[in-house]
Design goal:
Strand content: 35-45%
Largest sheet: 4 strands, antiparallel
Helix content: 10-25%
CATH architecture: 2-Layer Sandwich
Number of strands: 6
Shape: globular
Radius of gyration: 16 Å
Number of helices: 3
CATH superfamily: RRM (RNA recognition motif) domain
CATH class: Alpha Beta
Structural class: alpha+beta
């Protein structure tokens, strides 16, 4: 069992993940060896909310080539964390999503 600060690495910020925030689903990159119960416990402890379920996606390493040099992109694990009904997390506010629009 690893320490809770090692489990959650960083949020994944993409167009798809922003769309899921409205459904109370948050996307995080997590430690490769982290399990669902560890992710749930870490998220509940850090953000003080109740988690309904955790889905995990494992990504394998991919070959990467730059000119004559070849290597690999490292493997990683992504967690989709759904909050229980009635729970709210203001980590990414909806007000900050539309900053590019000018008001008339």
């Amino acid at each position: 069992m690893m320490h809770i600060t090692k489990v959650l690495q960083k949020p994944i910020l993409s167009e798809k993940s922003y769309g899921l925030i409205s459904e109370n689903v948050f996307t995080f990159r997590v430690h490769v060896k982290a399990t669902k119960p560890e992710i749930k416990k870490a998220f509940e402890t850090i953000f003080e909310v109740k988690v309904a379920k955790v889905n995990i996606c494992n990504y394998v390493k991919k070959a990467k080539r730059v000119g004559k040099y070849s290597g690999y992109k490292s493997k990683y694990k992504k967690a989709l964390i759904k909050l229980k009904k009635g729970e709210k997390l203001s980590l990414f506010d909806d007000a900050g999503l539309n900053n590019n629009k000018k008001e008339k």
